[in-house]
Design a protein that fits this description.
This protein is of the alpha+beta class and 443 residues long. It has helices at residues 11-38, 45-62, 64-73, 82-88, 100-111, 115-118, 158-172, 180-194, 197-210, 242-246, 252-273, 312-320, 324-327, 330-339, 349-366, 380-394, 397-400, 411-427, 437-440; strands spanning 121-122, 128-129, 133-140, 143-150, 217-218, 231-235, 240-241, 275-277, 285-289, 297-301, 307-309, 374-376, 431-433. The strands form 4 sheets. Strands 1, 2, 3, 4 and 6 form a 5-stranded antiparallel β-sheet that branches. A hairpin with a 3-residue loop joins strand 2 (128-129) and strand 3 (133-140). Helix 2 (45-62) packs parallel to helix 4. The longest helix has 28 residues, at 11-38. It starts with 10 loop residues before the first helix and ends with a helix.
Amino acid sequence: MKTLDHIPTGKIERAATLVKTGIKIGGNYAKYYTKKMVSPSLDKEQLNQDNAEDIYDGLKDLKGSALKVAQMLSMEKNLLPRAFVEQFSLAQFSVPPLSAPLVRKVFKRYQGAYPEEVYDTFSKDSINAASIGQVHKATKDGKILAVKIQYPGVAESVTSDLALVRPVALRMFNLKGQDTDKYFKEVEDKLIEETDYVLEVMQSQEISKACSTIANINFPEYYPSMSNSRIITMDWIQGEHLSEYVAKPFSEVHGNLLGQALWDFYMYQIHMLRKVHADPHPGNFLIRPSETQLGNPELVAIDFGCIKSIPLNFYVPYFELANEKSLKDPIFFMEKLKALEIITPSDSKEEVAYFKALFHEMLSLFTAPFHKEVFDFGDPVFWGNIASLSERYANDPTIRKMNGNRGSKHFLYINRTFFGLFNLLFDLKAKVSVNSYKDLSLA
């Protein structure tokens, strides 16, 4: 993989990169419509492939928030065309890294010393590169360490990057009006937090300690004395990313064991801590042989940059709607839709009726796991229903006429968390005990 000797850091330079990408996309559409005049039955598969590649090529050299948004979108497997999901998923842990000379220069700027002055050994080449930073292997006093170094200019360009991608997001999600500000502010605040590595170390230590009693999941140790706002030093964990693990054959027993650990980890955070690791993609979880159960695997959570706190006034109605009885009580159901800002005072009768029916159907499906003692996330019927529902509403002309601004700003990261979690559990084909996390509070 090629390395980068330079990353655009100024607003004008970054904007120019996206303008070039836009020109390429325009050319792709021109080619598509020319071919379609000759072959009216031509589908958009090649157009989607060309656009996905060109967008990703532009974003991967920018890195930062624009690439992070692409990574977030890669989790929306039933929203985006397959070509976009496949390309954007590369942003999880496979992007061009900084070159060795640039790494050394950036490290000196952040730490005030060169890597070889801080560690006993330091790999000049990146082991892993993602949207906000890249990881190098190092040693110190006999410990094998992972050193995450943030790309230059990332923290300073969050706001300007989001302004650049905002028009695309507005069109993609059918968002209109001033109410969109609260959603973009939520994303901006979270991305700014993700660039604060001092905060990430603190969150990592706090949640790791709180979740230490959960079976079959482990966490690296973090070293604040060798970390700062742009560098994190932690234990090196030898393992494979969850996506690599599920790409090979694994037993049903191990899939269920890992899935249960993942489920308990998330449910404990949400219900006991009221904050949650809101970035559940495969690049944030490693799988390695268990340290305590010979012959079994265990999960290791390695990134706590995106933590979402869940306020009580959102938590209560959100999980009341997950109760099967709530879905059968139309008056109670409507009260919760209003409490969660899904139905608003300015809605017309047509909008109220439409969105009430839409969310009743969606919630009946997406909350199904909470209605059972044991749920099979590998069930093809469950995922077939999700794909069918997503496709139907994506092509529904009625919803395009209505304002897509729906719900509290807290939905953005909580829904993202659950959808990402469900997809990881599907990859593991896991059957999980839904309420087992409750026993952890008594431990």
